[in-house]
Design brief:
With about 400 residues, the protein is mainly alpha-helical. The protein has one domain: Glycosyltransferase. Helices cover about 55% and strands about 0% of the residues. The protein contains 15 helices and 2 strands. The chain has a two-stranded antiparallel ribbon. The longest helix is centred in the last third of the chain and has 19 residues. It is globular.
Protein backbone atom coordinates (compact mmCIF):
# COMPACT_ATOMS: atom_id res chain seq x y z
CA UNK A 1 0.00 0.00 0.00
CA UNK A 2 1.44 3.47 -0.91
CA UNK A 3 2.60 5.42 2.13
CA UNK A 4 0.34 8.41 1.54
CA UNK A 5 -2.72 6.13 1.44
CA UNK A 6 -1.65 4.31 4.58
CA UNK A 7 -1.04 7.69 6.22
CA UNK A 8 -4.53 8.87 5.30
CA UNK A 9 -6.04 5.84 7.05
CA UNK A 10 -3.92 5.83 10.19
CA UNK A 11 -4.07 9.51 11.07
CA UNK A 12 -7.89 9.85 11.16
CA UNK A 13 -8.02 6.83 13.46
CA UNK A 14 -5.40 8.45 15.68
CA UNK A 15 -7.42 11.65 15.94
CA UNK A 16 -10.61 9.70 16.62
CA UNK A 17 -8.89 7.93 19.51
CA UNK A 18 -7.78 11.28 20.89
CA UNK A 19 -11.33 12.63 20.63
CA UNK A 20 -12.72 9.55 22.36
CA UNK A 21 -10.60 10.37 25.39
CA UNK A 22 -12.67 13.53 25.89
CA UNK A 23 -15.25 13.20 28.67
CA UNK A 24 -17.62 15.13 26.40
CA UNK A 25 -17.28 12.77 23.45
CA UNK A 26 -20.37 10.64 24.22
CA UNK A 27 -22.53 13.76 24.56
CA UNK A 28 -21.03 15.02 21.33
CA UNK A 29 -22.00 11.84 19.46
CA UNK A 30 -25.52 11.82 20.91
CA UNK A 31 -26.06 15.40 19.74
CA UNK A 32 -24.96 14.71 16.16
CA UNK A 33 -28.38 13.43 15.12
CA UNK A 34 -30.22 16.51 16.38
CA UNK A 35 -30.78 19.60 14.22
CA UNK A 36 -31.53 21.91 17.14
CA UNK A 37 -29.10 24.03 19.12
CA UNK A 38 -29.26 22.51 22.61
CA UNK A 39 -27.25 25.23 24.36
CA UNK A 40 -28.96 28.11 26.15
CA UNK A 41 -27.70 31.68 26.10
CA UNK A 42 -26.68 31.44 29.76
CA UNK A 43 -24.68 28.30 29.01
CA UNK A 44 -22.88 30.00 26.13
CA UNK A 45 -22.12 33.05 28.27
CA UNK A 46 -20.70 30.69 30.88
CA UNK A 47 -18.47 29.07 28.26
CA UNK A 48 -17.26 32.48 27.05
CA UNK A 49 -16.39 33.54 30.58
CA UNK A 50 -14.56 30.32 31.40
CA UNK A 51 -12.51 30.35 28.21
CA UNK A 52 -11.72 34.06 28.27
CA UNK A 53 -11.04 34.29 31.98
CA UNK A 54 -8.66 31.34 31.72
CA UNK A 55 -6.86 32.89 28.76
CA UNK A 56 -6.42 36.26 30.44
CA UNK A 57 -5.36 34.69 33.73
CA UNK A 58 -2.67 32.70 31.91
CA UNK A 59 -1.55 35.70 29.82
CA UNK A 60 -1.45 38.68 32.21
CA UNK A 61 1.14 40.65 30.19
CA UNK A 62 -0.06 42.43 27.04
CA UNK A 63 1.44 41.05 23.85
CA UNK A 64 2.52 42.93 20.74
CA UNK A 65 0.19 44.23 18.03
CA UNK A 66 0.98 41.63 15.35
CA UNK A 67 -1.87 39.69 13.77
CA UNK A 68 -2.04 36.63 16.05
CA UNK A 69 -2.38 38.66 19.25
CA UNK A 70 -4.65 41.17 17.53
CA UNK A 71 -7.03 38.45 16.35
CA UNK A 72 -7.44 37.35 19.97
CA UNK A 73 -8.51 40.89 20.82
CA UNK A 74 -11.14 40.93 18.07
CA UNK A 75 -12.65 37.92 19.86
CA UNK A 76 -12.24 39.59 23.23
CA UNK A 77 -14.18 42.61 21.95
CA UNK A 78 -16.97 40.33 20.74
CA UNK A 79 -17.00 38.69 24.19
CA UNK A 80 -17.20 42.10 25.84
CA UNK A 81 -20.18 43.08 23.67
CA UNK A 82 -22.27 40.12 24.82
CA UNK A 83 -21.09 39.90 28.45
CA UNK A 84 -20.34 43.56 29.29
CA UNK A 85 -17.53 42.22 31.48
CA UNK A 86 -15.44 45.28 32.30
CA UNK A 87 -12.33 43.14 32.77
CA UNK A 88 -12.41 42.27 29.08
CA UNK A 89 -12.55 45.92 28.09
CA UNK A 90 -9.72 46.75 30.49
CA UNK A 91 -7.60 43.88 29.16
CA UNK A 92 -7.76 45.25 25.62
CA UNK A 93 -7.26 48.83 26.81
CA UNK A 94 -4.08 47.77 28.61
CA UNK A 95 -2.88 46.02 25.45
CA UNK A 96 -3.66 49.05 23.26
CA UNK A 97 -1.87 51.41 25.63
CA UNK A 98 1.17 49.14 25.76
CA UNK A 99 1.33 49.23 21.96
CA UNK A 100 0.74 53.00 21.84
CA UNK A 101 -2.45 52.48 19.77
CA UNK A 102 -0.22 51.53 16.83
CA UNK A 103 0.63 48.50 14.74
CA UNK A 104 4.08 48.66 13.18
CA UNK A 105 5.61 51.81 14.66
CA UNK A 106 7.78 53.41 11.98
CA UNK A 107 7.09 57.10 11.40
CA UNK A 108 9.23 57.34 8.25
CA UNK A 109 6.69 56.99 5.45
CA UNK A 110 9.46 56.69 2.86
CA UNK A 111 10.34 53.30 4.35
CA UNK A 112 6.84 51.94 4.88
CA UNK A 113 6.45 48.49 3.28
CA UNK A 114 3.44 46.36 2.31
CA UNK A 115 5.32 43.10 1.76
CA UNK A 116 5.45 40.39 4.43
CA UNK A 117 7.47 41.51 7.44
CA UNK A 118 7.45 41.57 11.21
CA UNK A 119 9.51 44.74 11.69
CA UNK A 120 8.28 48.27 12.37
CA UNK A 121 8.84 49.30 8.74
CA UNK A 122 6.06 47.00 7.52
CA UNK A 123 3.33 49.50 8.37
CA UNK A 124 1.33 48.81 5.20
CA UNK A 125 1.38 45.03 5.68
CA UNK A 126 -2.14 43.96 6.69
CA UNK A 127 -1.02 41.77 9.59
CA UNK A 128 0.07 44.95 11.40
CA UNK A 129 -3.32 46.58 10.74
CA UNK A 130 -5.51 43.98 12.49
CA UNK A 131 -5.04 45.82 15.78
CA UNK A 132 -6.89 48.83 14.36
CA UNK A 133 -10.17 46.88 14.52
CA UNK A 134 -9.92 46.69 18.30
CA UNK A 135 -8.67 50.26 18.67
CA UNK A 136 -11.76 51.46 16.78
CA UNK A 137 -13.99 49.26 18.95
CA UNK A 138 -12.39 50.71 22.08
CA UNK A 139 -12.92 54.19 20.69
CA UNK A 140 -16.62 53.38 20.35
CA UNK A 141 -17.14 51.25 23.46
CA UNK A 142 -15.57 53.56 26.03
CA UNK A 143 -18.04 56.35 25.33
CA UNK A 144 -15.16 58.80 25.12
CA UNK A 145 -14.53 59.80 21.53
CA UNK A 146 -10.79 60.15 22.09
CA UNK A 147 -9.31 60.72 18.63
CA UNK A 148 -5.87 59.57 19.79
CA UNK A 149 -7.22 56.01 19.90
CA UNK A 150 -7.77 55.97 16.14
CA UNK A 151 -5.23 58.56 15.00
CA UNK A 152 -2.65 55.97 13.90
CA UNK A 153 -5.29 53.82 12.20
CA UNK A 154 -6.43 56.80 10.17
CA UNK A 155 -2.88 57.92 9.40
CA UNK A 156 -1.90 54.50 8.07
CA UNK A 157 -5.04 53.65 6.13
CA UNK A 158 -5.45 57.14 4.65
CA UNK A 159 -1.81 57.17 3.57
CA UNK A 160 -2.35 53.76 1.97
CA UNK A 161 -5.43 55.02 0.15
CA UNK A 162 -3.47 58.04 -1.15
CA UNK A 163 -1.23 55.72 -3.18
CA UNK A 164 -2.17 54.32 -6.61
CA UNK A 165 -1.51 50.73 -5.46
CA UNK A 166 -4.40 48.29 -5.15
CA UNK A 167 -2.46 45.09 -4.37
CA UNK A 168 -2.21 45.45 -0.60
CA UNK A 169 -4.34 42.32 0.02
CA UNK A 170 -2.29 39.73 -1.85
CA UNK A 171 -2.99 36.85 0.57
CA UNK A 172 -6.37 35.72 1.84
CA UNK A 173 -5.71 36.40 5.54
CA UNK A 174 -5.67 40.13 4.77
CA UNK A 175 -9.41 40.07 4.20
CA UNK A 176 -9.90 39.46 7.91
CA UNK A 177 -6.85 41.35 9.14
CA UNK A 178 -7.28 44.61 7.21
CA UNK A 179 -10.56 44.62 5.27
CA UNK A 180 -12.88 45.27 8.28
CA UNK A 181 -10.69 48.23 9.26
CA UNK A 182 -11.94 49.99 6.12
CA UNK A 183 -15.64 49.74 6.99
CA UNK A 184 -15.07 50.45 10.68
CA UNK A 185 -13.22 53.67 9.82
CA UNK A 186 -15.90 54.58 7.29
CA UNK A 187 -18.51 54.35 10.05
CA UNK A 188 -16.42 56.61 12.29
CA UNK A 189 -15.37 59.19 9.70
CA UNK A 190 -18.03 59.07 6.97
CA UNK A 191 -15.19 59.20 4.41
CA UNK A 192 -16.53 57.38 1.33
CA UNK A 193 -13.01 56.81 0.03
CA UNK A 194 -12.78 53.89 2.45
CA UNK A 195 -15.58 52.12 0.60
CA UNK A 196 -14.18 52.97 -2.85
CA UNK A 197 -10.76 51.61 -1.95
CA UNK A 198 -12.31 48.58 -0.26
CA UNK A 199 -13.87 47.62 -3.58
CA UNK A 200 -10.66 48.36 -5.49
CA UNK A 201 -8.53 46.21 -3.17
CA UNK A 202 -11.10 43.42 -3.04
CA UNK A 203 -11.36 43.27 -6.82
CA UNK A 204 -7.60 42.75 -6.99
CA UNK A 205 -7.79 39.98 -4.37
CA UNK A 206 -10.62 38.25 -6.19
CA UNK A 207 -8.71 38.38 -9.46
CA UNK A 208 -5.73 36.50 -8.05
CA UNK A 209 -7.25 34.15 -5.42
CA UNK A 210 -10.92 33.44 -6.15
CA UNK A 211 -11.85 30.16 -7.85
CA UNK A 212 -15.22 30.77 -9.48
CA UNK A 213 -15.88 27.06 -10.03
CA UNK A 214 -15.28 25.99 -6.42
CA UNK A 215 -16.55 29.30 -4.95
CA UNK A 216 -13.58 29.34 -2.58
CA UNK A 217 -10.31 31.25 -2.20
CA UNK A 218 -6.76 30.05 -2.58
CA UNK A 219 -4.43 31.23 0.17
CA UNK A 220 -2.46 33.28 -2.36
CA UNK A 221 -1.44 33.15 -6.02
CA UNK A 222 1.17 30.42 -5.59
CA UNK A 223 -1.52 27.91 -4.55
CA UNK A 224 -3.67 28.24 -7.68
CA UNK A 225 -4.64 24.96 -9.34
CA UNK A 226 -3.18 23.27 -11.38
CA UNK A 227 0.13 24.99 -10.65
CA UNK A 228 -0.29 23.74 -7.09
CA UNK A 229 -2.25 20.62 -6.10
CA UNK A 230 -3.17 19.02 -2.80
CA UNK A 231 -1.60 15.74 -1.71
CA UNK A 232 -4.15 13.81 -3.79
CA UNK A 233 -4.05 16.06 -6.82
CA UNK A 234 -7.06 18.23 -5.97
CA UNK A 235 -7.61 21.96 -5.63
CA UNK A 236 -6.07 22.99 -2.33
CA UNK A 237 -8.18 25.43 -0.33
CA UNK A 238 -6.76 26.05 3.15
CA UNK A 239 -9.46 25.98 5.81
CA UNK A 240 -8.24 28.82 8.01
CA UNK A 241 -7.56 30.95 4.94
CA UNK A 242 -11.11 30.63 3.66
CA UNK A 243 -12.27 31.12 7.25
CA UNK A 244 -10.56 34.49 7.34
CA UNK A 245 -12.33 35.77 4.24
CA UNK A 246 -15.72 34.24 5.14
CA UNK A 247 -15.64 35.97 8.54
CA UNK A 248 -14.21 39.09 6.92
CA UNK A 249 -17.19 39.35 4.57
CA UNK A 250 -19.54 39.06 7.55
CA UNK A 251 -17.67 41.88 9.29
CA UNK A 252 -17.80 44.31 6.38
CA UNK A 253 -21.36 43.58 5.31
CA UNK A 254 -22.66 44.37 8.80
CA UNK A 255 -20.86 47.72 8.79
CA UNK A 256 -22.01 48.86 5.36
CA UNK A 257 -25.03 51.19 5.06
CA UNK A 258 -28.08 49.70 3.34
CA UNK A 259 -27.56 51.81 0.23
CA UNK A 260 -23.85 51.02 -0.15
CA UNK A 261 -23.03 50.53 -3.82
CA UNK A 262 -21.45 47.09 -3.56
CA UNK A 263 -23.25 45.64 -0.55
CA UNK A 264 -25.49 43.26 -2.50
CA UNK A 265 -22.51 42.07 -4.51
CA UNK A 266 -20.67 41.19 -1.29
CA UNK A 267 -23.74 39.45 0.10
CA UNK A 268 -24.04 37.26 -3.00
CA UNK A 269 -20.35 36.41 -2.80
CA UNK A 270 -20.76 35.46 0.85
CA UNK A 271 -23.77 33.30 -0.02
CA UNK A 272 -21.82 31.49 -2.74
CA UNK A 273 -19.08 30.70 -0.27
CA UNK A 274 -21.62 29.50 2.29
CA UNK A 275 -23.07 26.95 -0.14
CA UNK A 276 -19.64 25.60 -1.07
CA UNK A 277 -18.49 25.43 2.54
CA UNK A 278 -21.65 23.69 3.74
CA UNK A 279 -21.07 20.94 1.20
CA UNK A 280 -17.47 20.44 2.38
CA UNK A 281 -18.18 20.19 6.13
CA UNK A 282 -17.07 16.88 7.65
CA UNK A 283 -19.73 14.74 9.34
CA UNK A 284 -18.01 15.37 12.69
CA UNK A 285 -18.73 19.09 12.33
CA UNK A 286 -15.29 20.46 11.52
CA UNK A 287 -13.68 21.44 8.22
CA UNK A 288 -10.43 19.68 7.37
CA UNK A 289 -7.32 21.74 6.80
CA UNK A 290 -7.48 21.18 3.02
CA UNK A 291 -11.18 21.77 2.49
CA UNK A 292 -11.72 19.63 -0.61
CA UNK A 293 -9.07 17.00 0.19
CA UNK A 294 -9.76 15.78 3.75
CA UNK A 295 -7.28 12.92 3.39
CA UNK A 296 -4.42 15.33 2.68
CA UNK A 297 -4.21 16.50 6.30
CA UNK A 298 -6.85 14.54 8.18
CA UNK A 299 -8.37 15.17 11.55
CA UNK A 300 -10.12 18.10 13.26
CA UNK A 301 -9.01 21.73 13.05
CA UNK A 302 -10.56 24.45 15.18
CA UNK A 303 -9.56 27.87 13.85
CA UNK A 304 -11.10 27.47 10.40
CA UNK A 305 -14.14 25.76 11.89
CA UNK A 306 -14.72 28.58 14.40
CA UNK A 307 -14.47 31.22 11.67
CA UNK A 308 -16.95 29.32 9.51
CA UNK A 309 -19.29 28.83 12.48
CA UNK A 310 -19.18 32.57 13.15
CA UNK A 311 -19.89 33.39 9.51
CA UNK A 312 -22.84 31.02 9.20
CA UNK A 313 -24.30 32.25 12.49
CA UNK A 314 -23.92 35.88 11.47
CA UNK A 315 -25.59 35.14 8.15
CA UNK A 316 -28.56 33.46 9.84
CA UNK A 317 -28.84 36.17 12.50
CA UNK A 318 -29.00 38.89 9.87
CA UNK A 319 -31.25 37.23 7.29
CA UNK A 320 -28.43 36.81 4.79
CA UNK A 321 -28.43 33.00 4.99
CA UNK A 322 -31.48 30.75 5.13
CA UNK A 323 -31.93 29.34 8.63
CA UNK A 324 -33.51 26.05 7.55
CA UNK A 325 -30.65 25.38 5.15
CA UNK A 326 -27.71 26.37 7.31
CA UNK A 327 -28.70 25.82 10.94
CA UNK A 328 -27.69 22.11 10.68
CA UNK A 329 -24.24 23.28 9.53
CA UNK A 330 -24.01 25.57 12.55
CA UNK A 331 -25.28 22.86 14.87
CA UNK A 332 -22.59 20.37 13.84
CA UNK A 333 -19.79 22.93 14.01
CA UNK A 334 -20.97 24.23 17.40
CA UNK A 335 -21.12 20.70 18.79
CA UNK A 336 -17.55 20.15 17.60
CA UNK A 337 -16.33 23.44 19.08
CA UNK A 338 -17.89 22.89 22.50
CA UNK A 339 -17.40 19.14 22.89
CA UNK A 340 -14.10 18.42 21.16
CA UNK A 341 -12.21 21.72 20.72
CA UNK A 342 -13.09 23.01 24.21
CA UNK A 343 -10.96 21.17 26.78
CA UNK A 344 -11.65 20.40 30.44
CA UNK A 345 -8.98 22.93 31.44
CA UNK A 346 -10.96 25.62 29.54
CA UNK A 347 -8.45 25.99 26.72
CA UNK A 348 -9.22 25.62 23.01
CA UNK A 349 -7.47 22.70 21.34
CA UNK A 350 -6.93 21.30 17.84
CA UNK A 351 -5.78 24.69 16.50
CA UNK A 352 -3.39 24.45 13.57
CA UNK A 353 -0.25 26.45 14.46
CA UNK A 354 0.76 29.56 12.53
CA UNK A 355 1.32 28.66 8.88
CA UNK A 356 -0.25 29.05 5.47
CA UNK A 357 -1.31 25.61 4.24
CA UNK A 358 -2.39 22.11 5.19
CA UNK A 359 0.68 20.08 6.18
CA UNK A 360 0.08 16.31 6.02
CA UNK A 361 2.70 15.40 8.62
CA UNK A 362 1.63 18.03 11.16
CA UNK A 363 -0.06 16.52 14.22
CA UNK A 364 -2.71 18.70 15.82
CA UNK A 365 -4.20 17.58 19.13
CA UNK A 366 -6.09 18.76 22.19
CA UNK A 367 -3.02 20.64 23.44
CA UNK A 368 -2.69 22.63 20.20
CA UNK A 369 -3.92 26.02 21.41
CA UNK A 370 -3.15 29.63 20.50
CA UNK A 371 -4.11 33.25 20.98
CA UNK A 372 -5.80 33.57 17.59
CA UNK A 373 -7.56 30.21 18.00
CA UNK A 374 -9.02 31.39 21.30
CA UNK A 375 -10.05 34.67 19.70
CA UNK A 376 -12.00 33.10 16.84
CA UNK A 377 -13.67 30.66 19.26
CA UNK A 378 -14.88 33.68 21.28
CA UNK A 379 -16.08 35.28 18.06
CA UNK A 380 -18.22 32.24 17.20
CA UNK A 381 -19.51 31.87 20.76
CA UNK A 382 -20.50 35.53 20.92
CA UNK A 383 -22.46 35.22 17.69
CA UNK A 384 -24.14 32.12 19.10
CA UNK A 385 -25.31 34.30 22.01
CA UNK A 386 -27.00 36.61 19.55
CA UNK A 387 -28.70 33.68 17.86
CA UNK A 388 -30.03 32.42 21.21
CA UNK A 389 -31.07 35.85 22.45
Amino acid sequence: MPFNKLFSIVIPCFHLLLACKSSNYNDYKRNQNSCEITSTKDEVISIIKKVNNTWQLNHPKPGNAFWNVSVYHTGNMAAYEVTKNQNYLNYSLSWANKNQWMGAKSTDKANWKSSYGETDDHVLFGDWQTCFQTYIDLYNFTGKKDETKIARAREVMEYEMSTPKNNYWWWVDAMYMAMPVMTKLYKVTGNKLYLEKLEDYLEYSNAIMWDDEAKLYYRDAKYIYPKHKSLNGKKDFWSRGDGWIFAGYAKIIQDLPENAQYKQKYIEHFQNMAKALSEAQQKEGYWSRSILDPEAAPGPETSGTALFCYGFLWGINNGVLNKDTYLPVVKKSWDYLTNIALQENETIGYVQPIGEKAIPSQVIDKNSSSDFGTGVFLLAASEMCRYLD
